[in-house]
Amino acid sequence: MDDPLAGLGDVDWAGLSHAYGPADDVPANLLALRVPDEEERLTALYELHASIYHQGNRYEASAHAVPFLLALAADPVTPGRDDLMYLATGMAIGHDEAHLPSGVGIEDWRREVARMRAADPADEERRLDAWVEEAAGPGERASRKRQRELLDAGAVLSNAEAELAAYDAVRAGLPAVRGLLTDGDASVRAAAAYTLGWFPEEAAASVPALRTLLGAETDPAVTANALVSAGLLDDRDLIPRLREHLAGAEPLPRWAAAVALLRLGVAEPPVIAELAELAELAATSITPPGTPGTPVAFLNGDLRLYSATCLAAMDDAPPEAADAVLDGLSRTSDDASFPMAAAALKLAFGAPPGPSLPLPPFAELTPVQQRTVRTIAELAPGTWDWVNLWEILREWGLPTDRDACRTYAGLA
């Protein structure tokens, strides 16, 4: 096989930037991904996460690193190839929770970047100022003001262009990714199947490849990743096969089929029942028997959260959906509670009305709204120490202090 790092020295890495400045350390870290010493490889992978994908952000150097990561992932000699695939995919889309359950809205994304490129910089500066002034209250305004001081229209455009460039770099490498669907390593197949679901512009080539994989795959987690990706790519011809999986005995493909069917608009009772069952689990994931090393990649394998997210996105969710999500929320703590609380609030109250609306008396809330507020009020005290929870509650106009929320809910 050709050298996957051929041309690495031809890139002016020092002239590119990442989270910590010039990206001249990227080549050494890419080279270290193939050394025999595992600790050295893991250190290099950590350094790449920290520099070209820092906290989900992408930079000038990110798109330039993508072809080398994908080439390394495609080379059977490279250790830990699935990790490299996930890093490349992360640089394409950021954190996947931002795109679920509907998938990547690439048309809107491209349209917004084009608008920013054509905009008058002065108009963009005024947009940023207006964003600060539109804050709902003093606390949020102060937070936005601090962010505003670090931003200018040019930086916002540069960041947007870096994100889209990284996405398109992975898109250009999808032929190699589709080739990995037949790899001998189940973890690599799972990573490849996961990656394909984020590129709807490539559905015409990716959907047949995923169907071929599903026709031969025996690993439940790989099958699950492929089914979810097929749903994200709007493969409606797969609905009969999805129904077969939904009626099957394997838990992971059954769950994934329910996710894909709901994404495709099939909101039948068995679909809702499957997702509701997962949403109320105490554990966040299912370990497929015999395949402990093969992950369900979506939302880092948090099947409970993914199920709750799917149910919360429904326009007219049945009562059992809210009950299941609340059961699941009651079993969470700390950062695991935040997205579950948002899903529960959306199911109970609909889209967030904003904190400017007056809070109605608790007695005037519907039974499911009352249960939702009480479930949140009864979360562990440590969970209430996080600003993340306050921000979610503020969107729905609920108290951001635990004692105040308990008082509002009529609790001691």
Describe this structure in a few short sentences:
This protein is mainly alpha-helical.
Number of helices: 21
What's the arrangement of strands in the largest beta sheet?
1-2
Rg over alpha carbons: 23 Å
What share of residues is helical? 55-70%
> What's the count of strands?
2
Average pLDDT confidence is: 91
Category by helix and strand content = mainly alpha
Main beta sheet: strand number and arrangement?
Answer: 2 strands, antiparallel
* Spatial gap, N to C terminus: 68 Å
Give the helices and strands as they follow along the chain: EEHHHHHHHHHHHHHHHHHHHHH
Unreliable residue stretches: 288-292
Tell the overall outline: globular
Instruction: Report strand %.
Output: under 5%
Can you tell me about this structure?
The protein is mainly α and 412 residues long. It contains 21 helices and two strands. The chain has helices spanning 26-32, 38-52, 60-74, 81-93, 106-118, 121-133, 138-149, 153-172, 174-179, 186-196, 203-216, 220-232, 239-246, 251-263, 269-279, 303-312, 319-330, 337-349, 367-377, 387-395, 402-408, and strands at residues 17-18, 21-22. The chain has a two-stranded antiparallel ribbon. The radius of gyration is 23 Å and the shape is globular. Mean pLDDT is 91; it is low at 288-292.
Strand and helix map with partners:
Layout (H helix, E strand, L loop, with lengths): L16 E2 L2 E2 L3 H7 L5 H15 L7 H15 L6 H13 L12 H13 L2 H13 L4 H12 L3 H20 L1 H6 L6 H11 L6 H14 L3 H13 L6 H8 L4 H13 L5 H11 L23 H10 L6 H12 L6 H13 L17 H11 L9 H9 L6 H7 L4
Helix pairs in contact: 1-2, 3-4, 3-8, 4-8, 4-10, 5-8, 6-7, 10-12, 11-12, 12-14, 13-14, 14-15, 14-16, 15-16, 15-17, 16-17, 16-18, 17-18, 17-19, 18-19, 18-20, 19-21
